[in-house]
Design a protein that fits this description.
The structure holds 2 protein chains of 2 kinds.
Chain A: E1 15-16, E2 20-25, E3 28-33, E4 37-39, E5 42-45, E6 51-55, E7 58-65, H1 66-87, H2 93-106, E8 113-121, E9 125-131, E10 138-139, E11 142-145, H3 153-159, H4 166-183, E12 191-197, E13 200-206
Antiparallel strand pairs in A: 1-7, 2-3, 2-11, 3-12, 4-5, 6-7, 7-8, 8-9, 9-10, 12-13
Chain B: H1 17-31, E1 46-50, E2 54-60, E3 63-65, E4 68-71, E5 77-81, E6 84-90, H2 92-113, H3 119-132, E7 139-147, E8 150-156, E9 162-164, E10 167-170, H4 174-184, H5 191-208, E11 216-222, E12 226-233
Antiparallel strand pairs in B: 1-2, 1-10, 2-11, 3-4, 5-6, 6-7, 7-8, 8-9, 11-12
Helix pairs in contact in B: 4-5
Classes of the chains: A alpha+beta, B alpha+beta.
Chain lengths: 217, 277
């Protein structure tokens, strides 16, 4: 009775085109993301939290289809939690990354998910692993993802140096994200940051008017 | 082996045969002179706001079928549990059945565990189900409720994505409603202020969107209970009928009357006692 159901008509399908980034430093990692979710040209959520905790010291940055990445993150959280209880110790970041890769690769045809897994563990310290669309897994000292990442490869390549401190990393990530948000229409809102180390997770939000300013008016 | 004259009981769960039929029809019609009927987005404006004492949900009451208003007083705010209600936009049948299923599951859970369900549990159940069906269930839902952890408002999309936000609008009138909400929302509002805000948001959706209209329903959920005000505000554009369209008995005059009694013969009489104990 109430409107014809047509499988071809577009449904509300929020996507994180986004900009996400993760940097490792000696003692931990700094991760950051913008906060925009779009459905077509409409911003469905301007304060999204794309930094999702997977375990106590392991986070993932999500880009791609909102539904797909939320579902994968839930599955991996369960698998990692179970594994950690069996092991009776904190899981490795590499394990979490491999769990993401397993889901993303097996269902690569059905999923649209680009994920950066970052965290700290006792064996290897701070680590960043990237699992882009398609299900590849590679460890990198610094990684950017999402549609806005293309605008900041230059900034990242010229400003990243190995053995930076935590504050330098925070400034690098917030600077890079604000540049990407400036240029990429699909990224925007606030910058969410998290610094993960042995002592814990330190989360921050940088509001729009507090973002670092760049010279072009 | 199923005989053609034996009705098969359909398999339980959703049946997507009509989806493939529609796709085939589209293919046939595109080639010829006739065009397939254009699908219309279901018109709705639904909104929700978290305030100091609880959650306020609002919805319009128009259900459209193409360009005709099919139902002027449709209920879009569905009961989930004593502490949770859900507004639905999208395909009406899908929102109705999904919320019914959720409500049944939560009732069973309450009976089994002796606890009131939490909003996050309802959201997880919805997310699991909608993700599993990969967008084939066209239900965009706003779920609001109060539980022991606080006042919560979530949106669940047809593909299974969730967002947790303090204020929200969905449906075809969402842009108009969100304009009002973005302008006047403040955290920790008083209940009356929140009700007015939601009413104004739905009203702007009704004014600016053809698919939304008629009355406004409001549902206020607090720790003390639920106040489902239906309608909160009636449409000021209700028309009076010009004439009476019912015919009085005797409008058609009877010219002749012939009564023919049927002669029935009792062939067999069996009495079966019903056990009413």
């Amino acid at each position: 009775m109430l409107t014809l159901y047509n499988p071809i008509c577009s449904l509300y399908n929020p996507i994180y085109y986004t900009t996400i980034m993760a940097v490792e430093y000696d003692g931990g990692v700094v991760i950051g993301a913008d906060s925009r979710t779009t459905t077509g040209a409409y911003i469905a959520n301007r304060v999204t939290d794309k930094l999702t905790p997977i375990h106590d010291r392991i986070f993932c940055c999500r880009s791609g289809s909102a539904a797909d990445t939320q579902a994968i993150a839930d599955v991996v959280t369960y698998q990692l939690g179970f594994h950690s209880i069996e092991l009776d110790e904190a899981p490795l970041v590499q394990t979490a990354a491999n769990l993401f890769k397993a889901s993303c690769y097996r269902y690569r045809e059905e999923l649209m998910a680009g994920i950066i897994v970052a965290g700290w563990d006792k064996r290897r310290g701070g680590q960043v692993y990237t699992v882009p669309v398609g299900g590849m897994l590679v460890r990198q000292p610094v990684s950017v993802g999402g549609s806005g990442s293309t605008y900041i490869y230059g900034y990242m390549d010229s400003n990243y140096k190995p053995n930076m401190t935590k504050d330098q990393c925070l400034r690098l990530v917030s600077g890079a994200l604000s540049l990407a948000m400036e240029r990429d229409g699909s990224s925007g809102g606030v910058v969410r940051l998290a610094a993960i180390s042995e002592t814990g997770v330190d989360r921050q939000v940088i509001l729009g008017n507090q973002l670092p300013k760049w010279s072009t008016a | 082996m199923a005989l053609s004259n034996v009705v098969e009981t359909p398999a339980s769960g959703f049946n997507f045969e009509n989806v493939s039929r529609n796709v085939a029809l589209e293919g046939l019609l595109e080639g010829g002179h006739t065009k397939a009927p254009k699908p219309m987005k279901t018109g709705t404006t639904i909104a929700g706001v978290v305030c100091k004492d609880g959650v306020v949900l609002g919805a319009d009451t128009r259900a459209t079928s193409g360009e005709v208003v099919a139902d002027k007083m449709c209920a879009k705010i569905h009961y989930i549990s004593p502490n949770m209600y859900c507004c639905g936009a999208g395909t009406a049948a899908d929102t109705e059945k999904t919320t019914d299923l959720l409500s049944s599951n939560l009732t069973i859970f309450s009976m089994n565990s002796g606890r009131n369900p939490r909003v996050v549990m309802a959201v997880n159940i919805l997310q699991d189900m909608l993700f599993r069906y990969r967008g084939q269930i066209g239900a965009s839902l706003i779920l609001g409720g109060v539980d022991c952890t606080g006042n919560h408002l979530y949106t669940v999309g047809p593909y299974g994505s969730i967002d947790k936000v303090p204020y929200l609008a969905m449906g075809s009138g969402d842009l108009a409603a969100l304009g009002i909400l973005e302008d006047r929302f403040k955290p920790n509002m008083e209940l009356e202020e929140a009700k007015e805000l939601v009413r104004d948001a739905i009203h702007s959706g009704i004014m600016s969107d053809l698919g939304s209209g008629n009355n406004i329903d409001i549902c206020v959920i607090t720790k003390q209970g639920v106040d489902y005000i239906r309608p909160y505000q009636e449409s000021e554009y209700k028309d009076k009928r010009q004439r009476r369209y019912k015919y009085r008995p005797g409008t058609t005059s009877i010219l002749t009357e012939k009564i023919v009694p049927l002669e029935l013969e009792v062939v067999q009489e069996t009495v079966q006692r019903m056990d009413t104990a």
